Amino acid sequence: MSDLDTNWNWERPIAAPGRMHVDFEERVDFQRLHRYRVARARQALENSDLGSLLCFDNNNIRYLTSSVIGEWSRDKICRYALFTGNPDPYLWDFGSAAAHHRLYAPWLKTDHCKAGMLGLRGSVPPEANLLKNAAREIHDLLKAQGVADMPVGVDIVEPPMLFALQQEGLEIRDAQQVFLDARQIKSMDEIILLNMSAAMVDGAYQEIAEQLKPGVRENEMVAMANKFLYDNGSDDVEAINAVSGERCAPHPHNFTDRMYRPGDQAFFDIIQSYMGYRTCYYRTLNIGLSTPAQEDAYKQAREWIDVAINLVRPGMTTDKIAALWPKAEEFGFANEMEAFGLQFGHGLGLALHERPIISRLVSFDNPFELQEGMVFALETYCPAADGNGAARIEEEVVVTSDGCRVITLFPAQDLFIANKY
């Protein structure tokens, strides 16, 4: 069987197994997952006009190498990996992490695990020549692989490192689109991990529903959800939006110390990952009671998301889904840029935003065809007519051979009233 075979069997439910390895069930096979991701990257590279991929984006590094050293590294631009498509990837990691990989990551060749550091976003003075030495080492490896004369694809890069690579005579082009090509179709192992990640947020919302009452603050809900998620295996709680009452419109995308009051409408977005695979999962709950305007807003947001879900299937294009949603001016915004992210769809995987992107801002001019094995979130927003709240709903879907499966399961068909009076 090829490493690219996805082995779909939509007759069975998508599993959400426990986190342990067991001898009596097949669960996620991480070696199979690694082989699949490298094979996808190799195919995407072969389909491009690049000779190699040089990545500094932690999500791409993890996709290629199945290595991670924690959220600490996400904004440091201190790790990097090189892939020519022929040998296994090369990985330069921070200090002793390289030695650790050589001991505990046998899927990486030991001589491909190197210590590397590029200056911690300029903290180390340029005179130390870290960037120059790294660029020369990369160039030497490209020559050894016979691809030094071909363009090098780079995903994200600090300007001084870009200049150092160019001074070595390397032609630098964008690699992010190549990685997005690779990552857009998920294997069943990836889909199971995304489903397990969503299941953790199902549980977090149950905790929120039980504790959401007058006298509790937004930040306390965020703290409680963080603890629940880390207790249950999350490797990164990236963000939790907790928005309520008069803060709901317009949507501020954050949380504060605002105290909940009876009748408040409150929505949350839980963005976290399990084994790197992320959630983006909105739910709206009222505290104790609701008003007709809040109920109407919720029904409208639900209608907008349901008509979108009903269109999801292989061969559907993103412009047709975006066309179902209201124009920005119809729900209180000046233009589509200002309303971006409110009536929205975005791919999920190791990154929060992968393909496809679905929005009235971009989808009409650049429609994208859905394919089996894609996983993405659909989200809608509707402010209450009386100004007292807003509804925000999000569902994560897996594109199947004949439609889609929703994997976000905390109840959301009707407005949830927490601790009803």
Attribute tags:
single chain, 421 residues, alpha+beta, Creatine Amidinohydrolase, Chain A, domain 1, Creatine Amidinohydrolase, 2 domains, six-stranded mixed beta sheet, five-stranded mixed beta sheet, globular
Describe the structure.
It is a single chain. The chain is an alpha+beta fold and 421 residues long. It has two domains: 30-183, Creatinase/prolidase N-terminal domain (Creatine Amidinohydrolase, Chain A, domain 1, 3-Layer(aba) Sandwich); 188-418, Creatinase/methionine aminopeptidase superfamily (Creatine Amidinohydrolase, Alpha-Beta Complex). It has ten helices and 16 strands. It has helices at 30-46, 58-65, 97-104, 130-144, 159-167, 176-183, 188-211, 218-231, 292-311, 318-322, and strands at 52-55, 80-83, 90-93, 113-115, 152-154, 172-174, 236-244, 265-274, 277-278, 281-287, 344-347, 354-358, 375-383, 390-399, 404-406, 416-418. The strands form three sheets. Strands 4-3-2-1-5-6 form a six-stranded mixed sheet, with helices on both faces. Strands 7, 8, 9, 10 and 16 form a five-stranded mixed sheet that branches. Strands 12-11-13-14-15 form a five-stranded antiparallel sheet. The N and C termini lie far apart (58 Å).
Radius of gyration, whole Å: 23 Å
The count of DSSP E runs of length 2 or more, i.e. the number of strands, is 16
Mean pLDDT: 95
Largest sheet: 6 strands, mixed
CATH architectural grouping of the largest domain: Alpha-Beta Complex
Number of helices: 10
In the sheet with the most strands, the strands line up as 4-3-2-1-5-6
Query: How many domains?
Result: 2
CATH topology of the largest domain: Creatine Amidinohydrolase
- CATH level-four homologous superfamily name of the largest domain: Creatinase/methionine aminopeptidase superfamily
Q: What is the 3D form?
A: globular
**Helix-strand makeup class:** alpha+beta
Secondary-structure element order, N to C = HEHEEHEHEHEHHHEEEEHHEEEEEE
Question: Which consecutive residue ranges, at least 5 long each, have pLDDT under 50?
Answer: none
